[in-house]
Amino acid sequence: MYPSDMTDEQWEIVQTHFPAGKRAGCPRVRSARDMINAIFYVQATVC
Hints:
Elements: H1 8-14, H2 32-45
């Protein structure tokens, strides 16, 4: 866990804006939370 990661409380608010994974097709490799945390990490570290 990184300092830029969302807390569980923050994720509870945000998760309603992301659709659940579909059963058809390829399964997701990463969760939406992991992707959002990665974006926040890049913004925080400016890498």
